[in-house]
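Q: Hi! Curious about what CTP synthase looks like structurally. Here's the sequence.
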Amino acid sequence: MKYVLVSGGVISGIGKGVIASSTGLLLKTLGLKVTSIKIDPYMNVDAGTMAPTEHGECFVLNDGGEVDLDLGNYERYLNITLTRENNITTGKIYQHVIERERRGDYLGKTVQVVPHITDAIQEWIERVALVPVDETNETPDVCIIELGGTVGDIESAPFIEALRQLRRRAGKSNFMQIHVSLVPVISGEQKTKPTQAAIRDVRSAGLSPDLIACRCQQPLNPATIKKIALFCDVNNEQVVAVHDVNSTYHVPLLLHDQDLVSLLKTTLALDKIQIPAAYVKKGKDLWNEWRTLTLAQDRLYDSVIIALVGKYTDLHDSYLSTVKSLEHAAMHCARKLELVWVEAEALEPAMNTSDPAKFHKAWHNVCTADGIIIPGGFGARGTEGMIAAAKWAREHQIPYLGICLGMQIAVIEYARNVCGMKDAHSVEISAETPDPVIIFMPEGSKTHLGGTMRLGLRPTVFQPGTEWSKIRQLYSEAGQILERHRHRYEVNPDYVDRLTEAGLNFVGKDDLSERMEIVELKGHPYFVGVQFHPEYMSRVLSPSKPYLGLIASASG
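A: Let's find out. The predicted structure is below.
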């Protein structure tokens, strides 16, 4: 097994996930099978209980794992299917070791960070790296490991020591480290001192980077590259510039143009791996398709304006997969995406009193958009603004896509304004509502939050007589589809007949016909709500169907 470690210095959020994904993509273009592991040094067992504004969105996998958003990057770039085991956290490792200690597996020894925690980390990596992740169902050739946070943080220390030992065990030609650092520009000069300090930190921890990836605003000057190479004791070709580009999809091209592939081949002795001719051809086709699609972005002139009405708009990473899915769909519709962020609370009448300028600007953004999307979320804040946006889309024939909470919002709006249930609501928001059109799932837990929602890959069955459905046609009229879920609340079955008679069509239900999965308005250009989260399965080269429908309709 070959390992590529991507670590970071100076600051967090520097783009390690995109660089790790891009490196994996370049390896796949050679015909290699690639898997990925993300290490998060926080104590949480998983990302499920963290607020989106705290750590960005929670990404959900087929097996229901609630994981770090970077695993979404890996799946989107590499077209692989990961599991919850591909996300390692401090909480998971300590829980695993403590369970073993309680069973007596350590035979009475004093359990310590070294060797027990570090050994557990290495064992976890080696075990997960061998699990097939693509349609070949074969053992991967290379495992990309991303170490979250910044080298030098206290919480990262056990992982760094474990990776130092793993490098020693794997052997020189089976382990490569890419260290991502920052090269800021101050008074017009590219400063190398932060990178020099970062490399000293990582070397003092026992690791030695084979490649320094420098995040910068503009391409590095030859003098800057030479200086970094000199003071960090690497060759010039081991310093690459990852400067700002039009989109993150250009990063693989940027790395390819700086000959990262040759460095990967040399450092990891990839020429010794026997790659079947069919896989080599597949890799070349993948690269040609990616390059063609990405470069076409630079030649797009027609725009499509989408208003994202949400409650976590202060941190755009809260809706990262939603944004990426819109980008994928726009690329395939040959449109330049103009995403307008609308804070749901700003659409509510109370805002017209407290901040009229903010109120009118928010409504201007909604009214001038080509399409409206309301993504998932929890809690009461901003729901009335979302309901108002859904009403505008329905009445003015504006393409609309509601995801999870967004679907529930569409149902509440229809119940109120078409069915005459003026106080209809979700019990999550109004426990005493006389018309609870959205209810808590019977099997859900109200005492524990972690891993207690309806999670993971679940079937949705299109109902008889729904051949007219646009969303069904987007799925090529498949009778059944599989999408990922993450929710605690659902449409109340007691109200389905009443809503259906009034014209709201539940075109997709679960395999037992008990849960409402897809709602659609007949005769509307595109008014769709889905209980699942299709953004979790969108890929750069294969966009999510509900998102593709929204962008296509909004583009005319």
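A: A fun detail: Residues 2-290 form a domain with the Rossmann fold fold (CATH 3.40.50.300).
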